[in-house]
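Much of what follows relies on a compact textual record of a protein's fold. A record is reproduced here so that you can trace the correspondence yourselves:

. . .
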Amino acid sequence: MAKSSKKNPSVGSDRQAKIQAAAKTNNGGGANKIVIAAVVAIVAIVAVVGGVIWSEVSKNKAVVGNGNATPAGATIGEGFPAHPDVTLKAGAPTVDLFEDFQCPGCGAYEKSVGSTITEMAEAGDIKLVYHVVNFLDARLGNDGSTKAGNGAFCAAEAGKFQEFHDLAYENQPTEGDGWTVDQLKPLAEQAGLSGETLTGWEKCVTLGKYTNYIKAVNDNAFDVKKIKGTPTVMINGEILETQTVGSPELFKAAVEKATKK
């Protein structure tokens, strides 16, 4: 018996329905892909922007030290040990020097005895510890002592504390005039800072990275160590009258007396 040549109409209909369904699915998928791509792009942009903001905030936090930054080798409230890489000679005494960068007496003492102190520290004859205080800020109505202190400790990050310290006293302003970052910047350059290091120093000073440390040293100096003013010289924990160490010869004699044999 011959097969019928007529086609089943339901077959064509089913096939057409499947094609239409596939088309709808493909069209919807394309739209979904566009939406998904757009969302991904937005998320990526947000992530980049957020990353930049987070990075900048992190940098600023690193600079300000979350309010508790201390110079390398120091602890909060205690002095800054200068020349840490120097090998001390046997029996070398510890010399604690209390200074305020706006103090005229400190400037005069530095001019008279400062180079001798530095030379002895570099030779390992003494362990030199600077206590940078800022009590004159309140008395003079400015923040010059704190700014200069930050300048010194920010310079210390590049190994230039002593250079900046000495230049600050050589260029000490008239009492009450204070310091600005712009006035301190040339001293940092003369101390040997340049390029990115100088830029980092400027940001460090502007944001006051070591401000809380300086305040803590100031409070500890007056409240705990009982100094009366600046400059104050302490050798092996004993506060000495300024006149007894007021010249290179007298300072050397005091160190010799305190050196353990």
User: Anything to note?
Assistant: The CA atoms of residues 130 and 221 lie 11 Å apart.
